[in-house]
Amino acid sequence: MANFNILCIHGVGHGDDDRLLVPSWTEAITQNIRRWDPDAAVSCDFFRYDDLFDHAPLNLATYSKAFAKLLASGVVHGIGDLLPGSRGIFELPEQARWTAGMIAQWGSEDGLRADLRARLMNQLGKKSYGVIAAHSLGSLISYDTFRRSPGALAGKVLITLGSQIGNPFVRDCLAGRIEPLDARMWYHLYSDRDRVFTAELRLQSERFAQISTEFDKPGDILNHDPIYYFNHPAAQARVWFDVASARPRTLAREARLTRAVITPPNRRALLIGINEYANPANRLEGCVNDTFLMSSVLQECGYDSADIRVVLNERATAAGIVERLHWLLDGVRDGDERVLFYSGHGAQIPAYGAKEEVDRFDECLVPHDFDWSPARAVTDNQFVEFYSQLPYNARFAAIFDCCHSGGLTRDGGPRARGINPPDDVRHRALRWDSALQMWVDRDMEAANRSLAGSRARQEYLGANGATRRLGRAVALRGLPNARYDRERRELRHKGAYLPILLEACQEQELAYEYRDGANAYGAFTYCLVKLLRDPRRRGAPTFTNLAKQTADRLQKLGYQQTPALVGPRTLLGKAIPWKKPGRTRKR
User: Does pTM surpass 0.85?
Assistant: First the structure.
């Protein structure tokens, strides 16, 4: 008869006082293991930690203080990012409200986190556990402990469910990146119907598996119930079968074989071009041409046509773009090359903060179905989910031919690639000046204001600190930040992956269209491709030289736009990872 010792770690506070928690978890876990091993002896112990949070009252004042401390320390994702789809903490049901607050408290108090880690390691030393099951806040405590304690999970199965580990706000608290653990197997049970700030994890490890466990509990708007996760058919078939039969090597081998069959090629490119928008006034002319132009030059640079995907106009909805970003950036390995090219409008969306008022702008790409809401945009918060976990030795370059500050076409002038908001959205960022008797811009109480002092910081945030710039959410790893650096060292990683960003213009400039005879193109794209095709060039240019030469050519053509280049300095000075244009591939 097999013996199974399970350590259970509950979620948000008051779990220690919940009389139903122990019997419900024990029954569900026991039944699921005995489904595969009817004679199994199952023992469930419970990790208790609520008292460690009792030094501060569970109220909004405590949690507001915690959020403020985190934002001041350099965490760039605020409460609006922790609470997607909600204007603020006051809108939330009580359980979700306290969960958000306790996550902020956990992230902001180094002493609290240290005490939680010490207590968990102490309990692990008292007994040999084969499985650790951690729900919600308990999963954060588990990850924080095990990532800093190599070997503590050796030979064990970790099950996380209803977890916020991958939430952008939490990821910032963990120095911008989530790394695999040294467990025998780590299962992450995920449901996108769980409304308590849960998130997917994008880890590349044969010892990690994310299991889709969607459920809809009747009468429960949160769908955060751990028993529903435990009893989900997908969890029963994969997770509890592994626990009961102890087959990690077989599962790892199956994972390797699966990847060998579905592994994408080492080069891929996604090209997005949008001329047609719902408002005829926002129509552009050269974006579709840009994508075909970029596709042709990439193929000259060695990309196979089958490895380039194009999405245009009405097919380039927010959902359509996200779906294709999965195609581009899922399953990336060390040494792989990925290119994202976008040609269309850019914009800034006013975003709500902890006080339920606009305190910043989020830069975004403008899909075909854009409506000035984050749900129908591609914002930095969405983009970072795809690139922050990429392998450090992969190459990912994102090229944007659009404005980000917004702009309208002037009569008789060149067409600009940016749109201004409708009046109701614009009103969020204005205030009435009684003395001037005029509408003026609000002074944003930016969460990032303390990070906006230097030119280096302005590359990643807006010039006033109130703008989250596209593709830069995790770029602060290169800036001085003692807390961030300490977390990164203790968690044993280099920080989040940082892509190379090549943009058509600086923050306060506009990106314009250019007409080559009867054909319209983005001025930036047209100049960039001309330089890549220059027959006088010997070898591939560096990103730095390419950006400078493109800027020089735009200036000669009379365009008041200067391309922006951001990325790891060690890569910007190296040649672009494409072979010299014009030469055929050796057979």
Answer: no
- Topology classification of domain 3-261: Rossmann fold (3.40.50)
| Residue linked to tokens 């040609």 | 343
Buried b (16+ CB within 10 A) or exposed e, 94-111: ebbbbbbbbbbbbbbbee
Tokens of 403: 């404005």
| Structure tokens, 556 | 């000669």
Which residue in this structure is represented by tokens 């409708």? 422
- Strands 358-365 vs 467-468: parallel, antiparallel or unpaired: parallel
Measure the CA angle with vertex 380, ends 403 and 268; round to 5°: 85
Question: In 450-491, which ranges are E strands?
Answer: 467-468
Where are the chain's structural domains?
Answer: 3-261, 264-572
Quickly count: other Cβ atoms within 10 Å of residue 46's Cβ: 17
3-state secondary structure of 438: strand
CATH of domain 264-572: 3.40.50.1460
Question: In which residue are the tokens 């365009």 written?
Answer: 559
Mind listing the pLDDT tens digit for each residue in 103-115? 888 988 999 999 9
Q: What is the pLDDT of residues 436-477, one digit of tens each?
A: 666 777 776 554 544 444 444 555 455 555 566 666 655 444
For residue 569, report the phi and psi dihedrals to the nearest 5 degrees: -60, -30
Asked whether the predicted pLDDT for residue 167 surpasses 70, the reply is yes
CA distances from 406 to 5, 273, 365, 509, 511 (A): 58, 18, 11, 9, 10
3-261 and 264-572: same fold? yes
